[in-house]
Amino acid sequence: MNTSMKPVSTESLETAAKLIDSALACDRQYAELDLLLKNSRMTSGTLTGMTDSDYPSLCNQGLASIPLVGPVRHVPLPAELSEQFTHIQCNCVMGLLPQISRGWVTIDTDIFFWNYETGGDLAYYEGLAEVVLSVGLITPKPGIFQPHIKFLLVVCTASEIIVLGVTFQSEGDDVYALMHLQPNPLFSISSDGVNMIQVKGTPEGRIFLAGANGHLYELQYQSYLSWFGKRCKLVNQSSSYFSFLVPSALRFGESDPIVQIEYDASRQLLYTRSEAGSIYLYDLGLDGQSISSVTSISQDTIINEAIRTSNNPHGIDKSNFKPLVSISPIRKEESVTLSLMGVTSSGVRIYFSITTSTLGGRYGSLNLAHIRMPPGFAPNGPPQRPLNVHMANFSRGNSILCMSQNDSIDVVWTISPDTFGISSSLKETSITTAIEGRVWALEECPEPFSFESKVAGCTRTFPPTIICQHVQPTRRFILLTSQGTFILSTMRPVDQLHHLLQSCNGLDTESIASFFKLHHEKEGCATALILVCNNISTDNIISQSATRAFFKYGGEPTLRGGMLQVSTPSSSQHKNNSFFATTDNNQSLGGAIMPNEVVYSGKHDGICLYFSRILAPLWDGKIVEDNQTPDKALVSRFTCEDLAWFSEQLSGLKQFLDEYAPMSLSELGDSPVRHPRTGPRVQAEAFERNSVLQLRVLVQYSIEGLELWRELCEHQFYMITEQLPQNIKEDLCRTTFRDLVVSGKQITIALINALMERYFGDSNLTDALSARLREICPSLYGAADLKTTKANELLQSAKHQTNKAEQTAMLHKSLEFFKQVANNIDLTTTCTQYASVGFYRGIVELCLTAANQLDQQNLNLNLTLNGEVFGEQTRALRKHCYTCITNTLNSLLLMSHGTSGIQNTTGVKVSSAIEAERQLTEMLEICYQSQDEVFHIFLYDWLIGNNLINRLLDVTSSYLEPYLRRAAKLSDNIPILDVMWKYYEKNRNYNSAARILAKLADRETNSFTLWDRIDYISRAILCAKACTKTTNEAGEFLHELEDKMDVAQLQLKIYSSLEQIKSDEAQEALAELNSLIDISNLYSKYAERFNLAEAQLAILHCAGHHDPPLTQRLWKEIINQELSSTIDLPEVSKMSSLRNKIVLLGANYLSSAEKFFPLQFIVQQLEVISCNGGWDESWAMETLLQAGVTHPQLHSTYDTILQMKSSCWEQLGHPYHIQTVISILLTSYVNHLNTQVSLTERKPIMCAIQDIIDAHVVDLQASTAISSDITSALSRFKAIQSGYNKYYH
């Protein structure tokens, strides 16, 4: 099986796979039975069978010799049994048990069984006392009987029902070779005086009986005693639940015997047909364990509905619609809508559908949906039609009708759509076969294996025979008469082609050509391939004939719309089987044609059809069972035997393609026939040949995938998949076989590694398994995979090595193997295993080697250096490699933080957070040593993303600064700029750091707050001042930064003020103030707009703008705003609050003298407030002293106010208020001098004060008014004078 084949791209496999997808989609578009009958809605009945197109004549299509059924095989009754017929006294009944290939006959009280295939193994049972009326073979309920009892034989007599155990003795592959009946009945129960006409069982082991009294009975049995001490009971299911308690003699009513019971396993329904033609429907429930009567339809109702449906335009006599002689369930796999077909004695087939119940049950009424008239009613068809039909069978489209010709001969009608393949309407062929004797029983032989498993899941219902004929064996029907069994087989299209090839001399016959015409070229070729591929080794003559027919009648490819710029080809010889012909090797096509412009030949499409039909059950189905999750054991959807069958089928196709696909015209030069070849045809053949070569590779890869899958199953699939990493398990749960073949390299590698790992430690087994894998799947397991196996084996051995030095040596040796095939291994799994033993150098080196192997032209670096961080394609090549490294780093980082409860999927094992920190540092140091610049970019991104700035700043690589510079060019890359200034600061490049910080402060972004920007400016100033080299430019830059800081501080003041204002307008302004604003806009748009007097004053001060009136107005607003803010507080609190405000502002503006601290105006305002509020006379003076105003400045100011002789004081009721304050001020000043100034310095000052006091005393004494203010002032002045005279005279 080891076939060398050049590696192919995923794109080529995908192209071929899409052809298979199209073929499958085409097959799955076949019309279901209801659509074929032109009744998709089933709301009212329809009629077919009245036109010639319903039963086309094959004679008119050149297929008169095509067989519709195979030769009828007659197996006579055993001679011993024939003799028993001479002893019949009362009754004789015959039947078939197709489950075990047995026929049975009762002669009075004896029952005889024989193998109807061979006529042998005659057995009998004679332990009965009464005449046997009916017999049935039932599959027993599980868990009730001993395992050796495979079936139950139910025997009904006139008075009792007996259940016997059936066992078998196998011979070779035949498990039912020899039949044995247990002599003692398992159960025996009275029939309650009811004759049971038929016995019917279900797969669940239930037993139903057709009563001659018109009732349906069920024989219920169990393993324990119940039901009044009984293990079985007979229940009348068409009457009340407790009817088994009432004797039959007490039940009255008109008798209409039930003559037929049919079971629909797909819907869990039971049908009965009465002798009068009425149909009854029972629902057995979703699990098949309950029963309820649903509905019934009488013969008269059926006739009336049939007459209404036919509308009688063709003169159909209503006698054709009665009596009903047979019913057959239509499985859901055959039709979702139609559920039952009845046959009348005239061969009319009546189809029924079931409506959904509106009363809570599953089903409602049974309705006539369609009438199919038998052959003979079409105007130009043969006049022969079925008459006197007494028995019928319907299954998967085929109808078998048994018609009584005379007492000694029955005529069997076989009506089948198989010959016409896929059609939009129901077209059928019919053929009659004479059978000796009257047919007493008719059954279809069970398939030797369940072909349904080979088509299950690929279609919604059973597909037409032509789609599944490669797997569906010839269908056989057993007819039992008194002369023996007659085995009738229907013919599949492939059987018909086989017959034509075998019977025709040569291929130039009308019949073979007509066969390909009937089915169209691609279907004919697909059918021929069945014979070619399945008969290569068994019937070489048929295989060769089918091959010649394939090439002769498969057509040729053409171009849709001509060719484009094709050079003129030279003539070349042509061979009949060269549909893969191409241009001469030396020629080239001047232009390209898209594949969808090529109309492929029937040969090409036939290959696609045949391939798709083989793999249809698994192509787009999952590898594992549905509803599988990675946390459970994964179970393969197919068994080893199934997979072997699929592989064997494809192997025949592969052998065919291996022989013919590589051929070109130059290799077929010995052909005696020459054909002129034009450009378009050559080009079309070239495209077709290329497509077939791709299909050939797909077939090869599919076989290898199947063989690998089978190998995994043989080594216990669920145990191997248990070893897969979690992410691979998740992928496997979603993977279809198509995915596995076309793009499942990673999964196949993981599966192979898991398979090999199971046997690591036993080199003989691993070597044998490696050889086996290279034999069955060389494309999946090649030389590189062998190295991978060796590396994995070393790695596994190292994991169990206790000697540290030997373990390290093994790990490094495994790394060398892995690095040779780095781009072909599962990096994630390998890195996980390296991490489990702490081999972090192996992780880094292996991943970087893989990255370089995947991008050998270094396209990723070029893209990066040209300004693109990563291109889409090249990013995908390297990203996975780098991610394996950073995933390990992530695990170490989380563990170093002591994070608990994390899911470690990288294999990292550490004993503590300290150990994780150490290993993280060690692995990062290894990473820093890399010469892969793109990896450094990826690594730096990871460090920044995890906020490991300090670790990034520790990097000494030459790649870091270029990385930072490139990254900084990207818009809004603030984290990079943040790292960049720290990098420059750490490396003492203070000028660059300062400029980046200044740029950050000015950056337009919503992610910065005003405080962030002030912090950046502050850091920039520090860096600018730290520059060792000072230049004019550097000095100007520092000055700009300081000015910017001043304005930013003002902006911060405004921001803080606006935070106190609760309005939408203020909130909008706050958002705007997170960006730096120039001083002019600060004043006009914010300070002035929101009447922020303090801010306005500060901006005037910062700008050096002198405007006395404006300044005085602002001070007045400041004082008033402060008073307003404390209006509800006690006077003491008001005084304190206003004093604090004046003191604070004095600290900021006193240095500017009168420009921004108009002392006289402020004193005037404060004294008025103090006087008006009745505050202490010293409050204003003391406030200003605390603000930093000196005593002389204050006295000068108060003196000026006094000289102004303002009337406001008199209006306030304190005309001598200023004199009082001056007296307090001078007293305070004297005290200050006495304590703070030396005597020498103090004396001249005191002399001046004395002169001032004398003047004030004279003024006060000259006043004629009497006031407490004057008295207190004079008292203070005199106290000062007294003190002066005491110390200075």
Description:
The structure is a single chain. The chain contains 43 helices and 34 strands. The longest helix has 36 residues, at 679-714. It is of the alpha+beta class and 1289 residues long. The radius of gyration is 52 Å and the shape is elongated.
Question: What Rg do the Cα atoms give?
Answer: 52 Å
Number of helical regions: 43
Instruction: Give the low-pLDDT segments.
Output: 240-253, 563-595, 664-675
Helix fraction by DSSP (H/I, runs of at least 4): 40-55%
- Biggest sheet: strands side by side, in what order? 1-23-22-21-20
Number of strands: 34
The rounded distance between the terminal residues' Cα atoms is 135 Å
Question: Pairing-aware structural class of the strands and helices?
Answer: alpha+beta
Q: Based on CA inertia axes, which overall geometry fits? A: elongated
Short description, anyone?
This protein has 1289 residues and is of the alpha+beta class. Helices cover 46% and strands 16% of the residues.
Topology:
Blueprint: H1 10-27, H2 33-36, E1 46-48, E2 73-75, H3 79-84, E3 92-97, E4 102-107, E5 110-115, E6 123-125, E7 132-138, E8 151-157, E9 160-171, E10 174-181, E11 187-190, E12 196-201, E13 207-211, E14 216-226, E15 230-236, E16 258-264, E17 269-274, E18 279-283, E19 292-297, H4 299-310, E20 324-329, E21 338-344, E22 349-356, E23 363-372, E24 389-395, E25 398-404, E26 409-416, E27 429-436, E28 441-444, H5 452-455, H6 465-468, E29 476-481, E30 484-489, H7 493-503, H8 510-534, H9 540-553, E31 558-559, E32 572-573, E33 598-599, H10 602-615, H11 640-660, E34 674-675, H12 679-714, H13 717-722, H14 726-734, H15 737-743, H16 745-757, H17 763-776, H18 783-799, H19 804-820, H20 827-836, H21 840-854, H22 859-865, H23 872-896, H24 913-928, H25 933-945, H26 949-953, H27 960-968, H28 974-986, H29 990-1002, H30 1010-1026, H31 1032-1058, H32 1064-1072, H33 1079-1087, H34 1093-1103, H35 1108-1125, H36 1131-1149, H37 1159-1173, H38 1179-1187, H39 1191-1204, H40 1208-1211, H41 1217-1236, H42 1239-1262, H43 1268-1288
Parallel strand pairs: 1-23
Antiparallel strand pairs: 2-30, 3-4, 4-5, 5-6, 7-8, 8-9, 9-10, 9-11, 12-13, 13-14, 14-15, 16-17, 17-18, 18-19, 20-21, 21-22, 22-23, 24-25, 25-26, 26-27, 28-29, 29-30, 31-33, 32-34
